[in-house]
Structures are given as C-alpha cells and as structure tokens.
Write a structure and sequence with these properties.
This protein is of the alpha+beta class. It has three helices and six strands; from the N terminus they run αβββαβββα. The chain has a single domain, classed as Bacillus phage protein (2-Layer Sandwich), CATH 3.30.2120.
Length: 122
Amino acid sequence: MENEYIIEGNKLILGFEGYEHISDDPETYHEGYYYKKGEGAEHIADCLFHESWDWLIPIIDKIRKDSRVIAFEISFSLGVIVKTFYNGKWHFYESNDIIEAPYVAVIDYIKWYNNEQVNNNR
C-alpha cells in the first residue's frame, strides 16, 4: 500500500472513531494530531491500523455491530480473503499481505458510511 493511501485511510478511521483533526499548521504544536475527549491525542504518523491487528480489530468489531452490515468475514488460506455485505451487495477483497485486505475493506466501508451520513443529514 502506498504511504499516502495509508495516511488518508488512518485519517478516515480516526474520524470514524470520533477523533477530531486539530491542525496541520506547521507553526503549531498540534501538527498532524487528532483528539478525542477522554482518549487523548493521536498523531497520524503513529497510527498502526494498517499493520496491527490490535489497532484494526476494534474497528472491525464496531463495523460488525452496524445493523446495516450483514457480513464481515475474513478467511485465511494462501492469502487473505475478506467478504463484506452492506448496502445491498457483496464486497470482496484479497491480498497476500495478512492485514491489507481487511484494512482496505474497513476503509471502503468507512467511505460508504460517511457518504450515508452526509446523505441522511440533507
């Protein structure tokens, strides 16, 4: 995965988890930080959603609890296959990297989720 994709994906996940972007102004102390009341701050470069199950599994659990998500399945064999069902259709992801397919599935779901939030607030 490209570094830019990872940074953007981790930003989406932080937003999904309720963190708010503080600032990207290089003149401030808070450059690249995201804050959530009661949780503190996370610097985007320190987020490991793209490489750590400890970071990614709580996000997958949150997604699986969404009543609009019928399935979020991860299978391990010669590679990793992820199948998700939401928005009335199946979504398939596969990778030889053990965490890439689940990470991409999470990012795609959050993009859909954010779009649904915008559309429902119109």
